[in-house]
Design brief:
Layout: H1 10-13, E1 32-33, E2 42-51, E3 54-64, E4 69-73, H2 80-86, E5 97-105, E6 108-109, H3 117-123, E7 124-127, H4 138-148, H5 155-168, H6 172-175, H7 188-200, E8 206-210, H8 218-231, E9 236-240, H9 244-250, E10 253-258, E11 261-267, H10 268-273, H11 278-284
Parallel strand pairs: 1-11, 4-9, 4-10, 7-8, 8-9
Antiparallel strand pairs: 2-3, 2-5, 5-6, 10-11
Helix pairs in contact: 4-5, 4-7, 5-7, 7-8
The structure holds adenosine-5'-triphosphate and magnesium ion (MG).
Length: about 290
């Protein structure tokens, strides 16, 4: 029996789950479901991530379809945030973190030598669990991206870009008369929509969301979920959630991870209601978590 103190005591509590040793190499290493799709906008092949000696992502291959919402689910510590950060090279910022494998975004190898990481992160935006507005006004939070990326030529253009991003994030009506107030003066739910507006202001094609609702009350969370549904008309979204209900509401496909491995991926309805892998089922029925 392998001990995994991070997550659960299998020996005592989960005898009914097949022993993890049963999945030690193959077929544990081969995910159930369709991990590759036609014309993906994100294509990951054989991704491995190490933090020092810790092997956090193990040989994950996974595609994302254009304009879908893909939910990443799984127990704490299974590598969801780590994999998400591979998609816009945010792991580069973590000392000791090594990524290998191929990640293509819209056909380009984002770990290639010629890649401009600032430009990549413009194309692949990110929203974090805890809203993190800059310590500036609401206006300046949103204006920052278009300004540093040279997307606007005049103050009028910038005003238009800020308004458009705030509208897309569903925040304009609530803040249009207080644009000069600090971003931090907003409620948590509004701050999260401000962070989404900030990400949208540079016109990304892909948005990564790491548990975007977990610090919010149900009303704030509901607004973000509605926003995800609207944004999907124009954007591809990869989101991490601990809420299976949320994955069911917002995503078309869902991927289940376990100890750094992709276990199962497929249409959300199928994965959540008729999981094909016993570990997915164990997670969904609350026996892992
Ligand atoms: N900066 C880091 N340095 C060292 N190890 C890390 C670091 N970040 C994550 N890890 C380790 O990598 C593994 C995957 O972590 P990760 O944060 O990606 O999991 P997660 O699925 O997002 O978990 P959670 O649901 O709790 O957010 C864990 O074992 C974690 O301890
Ligand atoms: Mg995480």
């Amino acid at each position: 029996m392998v001990a995994h103190p991070e997550c659960w005591d299998m020996e005592n509590e989960f005898r009914e789950i097949p022993d993890i040793q049963d999945f030690a190499e193959e077929p544990f290493g081969v995910p159930v479901g369709e991990s590759d799709v036609d014309k993906p906008c994100v294509r990951c092949r054989n991704i491995n991530v190490h933090y020092g000696s810790k092997h956090a992502i193990r040989n994950v291959s996974l595609d994302v379809r254009p304009r879908e919402v893909l939910s990443l689910i799984g127990p704490s510590g299974c590598g969801k945030s780590t994999l998400l950060r591979c998609l816009n090279r945010m792991n580069d910022l973590i000392p000791g973190c090594r990524v290998s494998g191929v990640v293509e975004v819209n056909g380009s190898d984002i770990y290639g030598r010629e890649i401009d990481v600032v430009n990549l992160r413009k194309q692949v935006g990110m929203v974090f669990q805890k809203p993190n507005p800059f310590p500036w006004s609401i206006y300046e939070n949103v204006a920052y991206g278009p300004r540093i990326h040279g997307l606007v030529d005049s103050r009028e253009d910038l005003d238009r870009a800020v308004k458009a991003a705030l509208k897309r994030a569903g925040l304009w009506q609530e803040v249009k008369r207080r644009l000069d107030e600090p971003g931090t003066s907003l409620s948590s739910g509004q701050q999260q929509r401000l962070c989404i507006a900030r990400a949208l202001a540079v016109k990304p094609t892909i948005l990564l969301m790491d548990e975007p609702c977990s610090a919010l009350d149900p009303i704030g969370a509901g607004k973000i979920e509605s926003l995800i549904e609207e944004l999907r008309q124009q954007l591809t979204i990869v989101t991490v959630t601990h809420s299976v209900q949320q994955a069911a509401r917002v995503s078309q496909r869902t991927a289940y991870f376990h100890f750094g491995r992709l276990i199962e991926v497929g249409e959300t309805d199928q994965v959540l209601t008729h999981p094909r892998h016993p570990l997915t089922e164990a997670y969904l029925t609350g026996r892992i978590g």
